[in-house]
Each structure stands twice: as C-alpha cells, then as structure tokens.
Amino acid sequence: MPTAELSPASPKSPHSASPPRRRRRKPPLALRPLHRMWRRTIDQLDVAHVDLPVRGLNPEHRGVIACQISDFHVDRDEDLARLALAVQTINAQHPDLVFLTGDYFSGPETMRRYLGAFRDELHKLAPKSGVFAILGNHDHWASAERISEALRGAGADLLANESRRVKLNGSELVIVGMDDLWARRAAPARAFAEVRDDDATILLAHNPDSALYVRHLHPGVQLSGHTHGGVVRIPFYGSPLRSILRIGKDFYSGLNRYEDFYIYTNRGLGTFFVRIRINCRPEVSRFSLVPLSELAHQPLAANGAVAAPIEDHPRRKRRAIRRRKHRQPRSAI
Q1: Where are the domains of the chain?
Q2: Cross-strand pairs, 284
C-alpha cells in the first residue's frame, strides 16, 4: 500500500495563519529507535486504493476518482503538518471529488488555536468538481458554527442533512451529507428529501452506525470515519478493543457490506486522548467508483459464510420513518 511520510519541517505558506511552532525536545539516546518507530505509526500516511461499489451508479460515472480524509483532530503542530501532507497527497491523485467526514478538532481550545491554519490548508485542495464536508461529534462539542464557517471559507460545501447534485461526464451524481449521530443532529429523512428513487447516491455520515437509520432509504454507498480504525489492529483478527458501534467492530475500518449496500470507514488522520496507533496508520482513501454489480469479490458475512450477491437495482420506494428513542453512547471517539 503506498505511503506518504511527514517530513520534520512542516510545509509553510506565506498566507498561513499557523500558530508559532514549539521546539521538540529530543528523547534520550537509548529510546530514539522506539521514538522513531512510534512517530512513523502516527505520521506515515497510507494511501488506500479502493474500488468503491455504488448501487445504481450511472455508466458515465464508472472510474470517477474521489478521495476521503476524516478525523483530523488538529490539536498540535504535528497534526497540522499531517493535514498538510494529506492535502498534498490528495492533490497528487487528481481527484474529481474530495470528501471530508468530520472530527476536525477535539475541543474548543485547540479549535481556537488552529482554526485559521486548518482553513488555509484545506483551501489548497484542488479537485475537479468540488469538496464536500460534514461535521462529526467533536465538531459540535467544539463549535459547529465556527468550524462550519472555516470549512466554507476553505471552499468546501458543508452538508448538514441535505444533498447536492454534481454533474460529472454529462450525468448527475448525488452527494448526501448527514449530520452527526452522537450529537443528536442526524435527520435521515431531511438529508434524503431531494433524492429521487433512480438517483445514485454517496452518503457522507461520520458515524458508521448511521447505517441503522438510513438503510430504508437505500443509499448507494456510505462513507464514514469516527472509529480511527480501532486504533490497534491485529492481523487476521482486527481491533481487540470493545466495539463502540452498534453494528459491530467489523465496521471499524475499510470496505464492509451492510445489508444491501457497502460502508467504507476511513481510519482517520489524527489521534484523540491516546497518541498511539498499532498496525493502523493514518489513511487517505482514494476511490475509483464502480457499479455495485461489478464488484469483483464478495466479502465474508459476520458468521464467516460467503455473503450472497447484492443486486444492483434502483432505490426502492421509501417507507415512512418511525422515531425511536436511543440511549446516548457513553464512550466518545
């Protein structure tokens, strides 16, 4: 898997509002090899090349390139430098679309410190057809209003329970953005209100559990973040951490089938609370859109059996939504 590595000196811009940088104190000589290994696990970006299956995708959109980054958690100078590297990496892919799926800061203090520099870095994104963004739970806990203003100032189209039609290769693709689930701002019916039954949709939803509330609306594919990939990943097992998702920790990372559509969960760029990643490096996702019917393989179902093929049919007629009460999860990533 291709990687991009953070250089010791972060990129600078004459127009950047970057805060003054603090000089790093070097670790003891005996610990430097371990320190370098630790830095690589949180600074070296993986570029995940994924054929993204979209139900009902128009033939004109096959091969369209899109990139996703998520969970920046810009709390330190190093996080800002990692974001700058991610922006450079994305521009090198020459994407048609870029998707930002929330949790840009961890809280109000770091948000106030880095907001201007965050906006300036995102403004350097140069996709052919637009940048689309949603908010995550931490963004609401920091300041949804100020972060939204910065995203729009960077040229991103912020979607809060709404959709946009993007014309690509002479045909329309619909981008749906749902607000955050844990912040109790998600409104699936409003997000899909302008979506027609024959539209191919890409749903941006920060929390993978959003699938529980949109499945009856038949999204083409869902792009999420929130989990940081599970932070620790063991080969052939996945994350040993207890699931924070109602749909299970199988959805912590990568491309996974949920009922009759797929969810892709990005591992994120930053860290929160614990500055560690084990076998779970930060990720830039590079998607090539393909019709769902062309998916070359079928992943295993939760019980280990081969999943049945999914029909690439148009979106079915929507059923009325019944409101339910759910308890707020205790943990917060």
Answers
A1: 53-294
A2: 47
Q: Which of 202-206, 245-249, 328-332 has the lowest mean pLDDT?
A: 328-332
Whether residue 2 has pLDDT greater than 60: yes
The alpha-carbon radius of gyration of the chain (Å, integer) is 19
Cα-based distances in Å from 176 to 39, 201, 247: 36, 7, 21
Q: With respect to CATH, is domain 53-294 assigned 3.40.50.720? A: no
Higher-confidence residue of 288 and 30: namely: 288
**pLDDT given at position 198:** 93
18-32, 203-217, 219-233: the lowest-pLDDT one = 18-32
